[in-house]
Amino acid sequence: MPKQKLYLGRAWYAIHTVIGFEDIVAESIMKRAEAFDMKDKIFNVLVPKEKVWEVRGGKRELVEKKLYPGYVFIDMIVTDDSWYLVRNTPKVTGFIGAGTTPLPVDPKEMEEILKRVKSEEAPVEMDIKVNDLVEITQGVFKGLQGKVVEVDREKGRLKVVVSIFNRETPVEVDFLQVKKL
Questions:
Q1: pLDDT tens digit string along 148-171?
Q2: Which domains does the chain have, with CATH numbers?
C-alpha cells in the first residue's frame, strides 16, 4: 500500500517541545524553513508570552512569562515535507493531534492567544476592596493577616491594618503581595 500524502491547509498548529527550549525551537524552525526552501509552507512561529507584574525582593517588576510552557505555535501548510522538517527539529517532541496527523488550533482560540500576546498592558487583576480580609504573602509583613482600609488602584497599592505587638498598625503593601481570605 503506498504511503498516504499528508496535506492540510494553512492554519496554526501546536507542537510540543522540551520545556525551556521553546525560543530555541522557534528560531531553529524558521532557520530550517529558510535553509530547506520551505518559506512558502512555514510562515510564522510563535512562542506566546505576556507581560505580568511580579514582586521580587520587595520591588514590583514587569516580567515576560510564557503562556504555554512546552508549546510552540506554527502558522503553516502541512505537507509531508513541512511536517517532516518541523517534526525532526531538535527538541520537538511532536505535533498536537491524532497519531501523526496534526490538528489545527481552533481559530477562535488562536485569535485569543494572539490578542493576549499583542496586548501592551500587563494584566492587573485585583478584586480586593475596602474591608476585605487579606493575608500578606511576601515581604517583611509576610504571614500577617489584616483588613484592607484603603485601595490605590493607580499605584497598585493597599493599606492594610495588621496587628503588630498587639497594636493595630496600618502598613502599605503592593496588591501582588496579598491574597484574599
A1: 999 887 777 899 999 988 899 999
A2: 7-118 (3.30.70.940), 133-180 (2.30.30.30)
